[in-house]
Design goal:
Layout lengths: L6 E9 L2 E6 L2 E7 L1 H11 L4 E5 L11 H9 L5 E4 L5 H9 L4 E4 L1 H5 L2 H10 L4 E10 L2 E6 L4 E6 H11 L3 E6 L11 H10 L4 E4 L5 H9 L4 E4 L1 H4 L5 H10 L7
Parallel strand pairs: 1-4, 1-12, 4-5, 5-6, 6-7, 7-10, 10-11, 11-12
Antiparallel strand pairs: 1-2, 2-3, 7-8, 8-9
Length: about 250
């Protein structure tokens, strides 16, 4: 029954311990203190929060655990954290300070066995495999290192492999759509949502309530967004009323 309820997930991209937001992964602007922003979403009715330490991998450092701990203590909804997670010890450190799920991207591409290991030790429900994609002619390719490195891996086959290895969810971000507010990339989101049995979180490009309704109608289980929530363009409680009025089941 749970899967029938669609989820709204605000995303906190964090750099230098501040929430930031850019367009197509660049030109970042400040959007506030992670704890304040997370608390606001908790109160506004978000279903989960996703916290991504966006420069951890590129700066070759671990996720900022102390910031995560502060955020986790003040939330009553699930918290997913990603960025710089390379091994079981990193996962353990995050789960022990109150995270509910971890999100891996670059480390999963570089070492696919990590998906199996985390799923085996902590359960599939705890593993979110984040896939940043960019269209290249007819196919979509997977990017790592905060969107800086093209792995040349086909996104559809990688999503399938991640599911087979034990991922509990896929967080699918279109780099082409990211921050543009022109809507999600319906094409790749629909293909992957229809192919997989596990939930797919659509990410990149939400600009209006209709975009979120549309991505739910084509099969996404959750919609992740940042700019529209950070800068108060759309309030989560109002969005949920709109979705309910359009026959999309959400938790109020």
């Amino acid at each position: 029954m749970e899967n029938l309820t669609k989820r709204i997930i605000p995303c906190l991209d964090v750099k230098d311990k501040r929430v930031v937001k850019g367009i197509n992964f660049v030109n970042l602007i400040d959007a506030g203190d992670p704890l304040e922003v997370a608390k606001r979403y908790n109160d506004e009715g978000a279903d989960e929060i996703c916290f991504l330490d966006i420069t951890a991998t590129d700066e070759k450092r671990k996720t900022i655990v102390e910031v995560i701990e502060r955020v986790a203590k003040n939330l009553f909804i699930p918290l997913t954290v990603g960025g710089g997670i390379k091994n079981i010890d990193d996962v353990n450190a995050l789960l022990s300070v109150g995270c509910d799920k971890i999100s891996i991207n670059s480390s999963a591409v570089n070492n696919p066995n990590l998906i199996d290991q985390i799923a085996l030790k902590f359960g599939s429900q705890c593993v979110v495999v984040a896939i940043d994609v960019k269209r290249n002619k007819e196919k979509y390719e997977v990017f790592t290192n905060g969107g800086k490195k093209n792995s040349k891996i086909d996104a559809i086959s990688w999503a399938k492999e991640a599911q087979e290895r034990g991922a509990g969810e896929i967080l699918l971000t279109s780099m082409d759509a990211d921050g543009t507010k022109n809507g999600y990339d319906i094409d790749i989101t629909k293909k992957i949502s229809n192919l997989l049995k596990i939930p797919v979180i659509a990410s990149g490009g939400a600009g209006k309530m209709q975009d979120i309704k549309e991505v739910f109608e084509i099969g996404a289980d959750a919609a992740l967004a940042a700019s529209i929530f950070h800068f108060g363009e759309i309030r989560i409680n109002e969005l949920k009323k709109y979705l309910l009025n359009n026959n999309i089941s959400v938790r109020i």
